[in-house]
Design a protein that fits this description.
Layout lengths: L2 H14 L3 H6 L1 E9 L2 E4 H9 L6 E13 L2 E12 L5 E14 L2 E8 L2 H9 L1
Parallel strand pairs: 1-6
Antiparallel strand pairs: 1-2, 3-4, 4-5, 5-6
Length: 124
């Protein structure tokens, strides 16, 4: 496993466990998180983005595949959304996640609902 792949796998792992200090340590100071609700810039905004609101449905990210080309990593993930109260599965979705790294730190993260668009961005 390359250092870059290790970083993005830890990104997922620390996110799942809500280990925010460890999560932020994986990020470049100029990180950009391109979430579904807009772009977050910098470590403080990334921490805010990764902070889970208690109650309702909570997601767990499962890595399906991971490939690297230079400083980019493309990951296919499945998200399981479960009710916090009883851990019952609410729904599942699948996405492609594109990471850009700088010196083994996450510089950019972007989710894609369309795998083909993710592949185009990955190879650009």
């Amino acid at each position: 496993m390359t250092p870059e792949e290790k970083t993005v796998r830890e990104f997922v792992s620390t996110f799942n466990r809500s280990e925010l200090d460890a999560f932020v340590a994986l990020l470049d100071p100029e990180v950009e998180i391109h979430g579904m609700r807009g772009t977050r810039k910098g470590r403080d905004e990334a921490r805010e983005w990764a902070t889970k609101t208690p109650g309702g449905v909570q997601q767990t990210v499962l890595i399906q595949s991971c490939e690297q080309a230079g400083d980019r990593v493309l990951m296919n993930v499945k998200r399981e959304w479960r009710w916090e109260e009883d851990n019952e599965l609410a729904y599942v979705d699948e996405l492609a996640w594109l990471f850009q790294l700088r010196e083994t730190k996450v510089l950019s993260w972007q989710p894609f609902e369309d795998n083909e668009k993710a592949r185009v961005a990955f190879t650009a």
